[in-house]
Amino acid sequence: MEPEREPERASIAEHRRADGRRGDRVWVHLLWEGVLLVAVVVAALAVRSEDASVFRGLGLRDLSVMLAAGVLLGTAFAVSLRAAVPNLAVGAAAVTAGTLTGWLVGQRGYELRTATLVTLGAAVALGLALAAVVVGLRAPAWAAGLAAALGLYAAALSLGAGRTLPIPGAPDLRRWAWPLLAAAVVVSVGAGLLGMRREVRHAVGRYRPTGDPAAGRGGGAGLVATTALVASTVLAAGAGLVLAFRAGAAVPDDGLTLLAQAAGAALLGGTSAHGRRGGIFGTVLAAAFLYLAAVWLGLVEAEPWTRQALLGGAILVGLLVSRVVEAAGESADDVREPDEDRDERDPYATEAWSPYSTSTYSTAGYAPGTAAPGDQGSYRTDEPWWPGQAPPGSGPPFRSGSDS
Fold first, then answer.
1. Does domain 25-334 have CATH number 1.10.3470?
2. The pTM is what?
3. Cβ distance 366 to 351 under 8 Å?
4. Where are the domains of the chain?
5. Which of 208, 372, 327, 223 is nearest to 274 (CA)?
6. Do residues 252 and 156 make contact, with C-beta atoms less than 8 angstroms apart?
7. Rounded to an integer, what is the distance from CA 238 to the centroid of its chain?
8. CA dihedral 125, 148, 101, 236 (to 10 degrees)
9. Which of 58, 156, 197, 273 has the maximal Cβ count within 10 Å?
């Protein structure tokens, strides 16, 4: 008598047909973005009650320029975070971009346009270098980003000799405040909408570790991670240029506050700390709330430490939001079949162990797969395979009685 076999796992296509969804659940992001919108309105009213001129004339234009920089910074970190390669160098990249531009213009006599292009080219090179370490060496992205941030801080101190570097001929960005803010919002919202597409979401999600975090992810996943790191670094450099041009000078520092602002905007905006999942308008709304809250703290002459407390609180709240996004975002569409080019083999597996049989029992070879339903890691006499070794759809690896 043949043993009863475990039903085979349904394919991902069957899950999609049964569930009717084509991607992660969007409602949780839209709901949270509604909460953020209310928070932005409340913060704006609080600022207006202290100083109504912030929303008039040059004050409003200046606010728009700063908000554009904040949106670019938040988007820079959100892009890398969504690809599961968080770039901790975004703050230092922003500071160094302004410093390098000021040094090229003031010390080397470059035209401002040429210096800006050189700076953006250097940002591309830095992103590729990060990708070489993260993808090529399979190193944790946070560690590579931290090393890059320290190197950039050293470079900024070297270029500026610890002094503020003026940027001669820096444009008055308040004249282009609205196009600049619109461009930043379009980039952020466009990235969010693109990330909602099923194909993009699965491509981005392939770099999320599912087993050994040091295992290969495949060429496709590596390309996505490389693109995200380059885009993240370039966006951070763009934000740094906006801040430097707005001030007319660059002040070398470690970029920690800018990194906290970027991480706070990305996480508070609903981008999952684990990668892949993210909203549409969340980063824009979170960046707006953080900047308006900082303006209000300045207007009420709050203690200097309150700005750091605000950013730290935003990151903590963002981590809670990530947990909600992960819990509510899981759907049948998340069942992922192994990628053909992704190395997910068990490094301890014995591939050559073939099944054999005796007169009293048969034994299946050791192969990575999924554990039996209900298996909690302990030995069971009714389904006595080892945890994690039964191939999907297979029956018990041995049974009592004859093999007939």
1. yes
2. 0.74
3. no
4. 25-334, 349-404
5. 208
6. yes
7. 18
8. 80
9. 156
